[in-house]
Amino acid sequence: RLTSAEHPARLLRTVLDAAIGLTGARRGFLILREASGARFEAARNLDREELRSPATSVSRSVLDRVLRTGLAVWTDNAMEDRRFAGNPSLAELHLHSIACVPLRVKGRVRGALYLDHPERPALFTREDLRWLRAFSDQAALALGNLLARRRIKALNGRLRRLLRARTRELGDARAA
Question: Is 50 in contact with 22 (CB distance < 8 Å)?
Fold first, then answer.
């Protein structure tokens, strides 16, 4: 399903639904990194419902760490994890289990796949983290390929229009 998607939004929803379904996460977010900052592309819950205000629903410190370092972050209980002590978003969101892995294309971090469960500690296992890393790399590759195909298709259309215009110009010049 990853390689056959024709629309980026549909691909991202497919990725997110698969990650949530396979791990039992309560919520999931797909974030793409841009020059202007992180852009939330998809945010869904276990019931596949879109989440409102996703930017205020995640731990920014976890997300920023993954986007900055390119390393996955996994915690059994974010509320008690010393790495995130004093983080106001964790206290406000009452987050326990978090797994956040980078989306990498050609070695560069292009975004992150962020999963959590507010009520259940120790949801994600080491095996889940290994699987999520591999899955996120495949998802990033599929997204990169989809966007490249769209750019090629658009460029092809422009070249065809230029060729038609040039052919008409040549025909007009010969007729004159």
Answer: no
- Which distant-in-sequence residues (6+ apart) come within 8 Å of 94 by Cβ? 79, 118, 119
Q: pLDDT (tens digit, 9 = 90+) per residue, 54-66?
A: 877 888 889 999 9
DSSP state of 111: E
Answer for the pair 25, 117: CB distance below 8 angstroms, yes or no.
Answer: yes
Name every residue whose Cβ is closer than 8 Å to that of residue 136 and which is 6 or more positions away in sequence. Answer: 101, 102, 103, 104, 112, 113
Over residues 85-125, the pLDDT tens digits come to 778 777 778 788 999 999 998 888 989 999 999 888 899 99
Q: How far apart are CA 65 and CA 55, in angstroms?
A: 15
Contact between residue 132 and residue 72 where contact means Cβ atoms under 8 Å apart:
yes
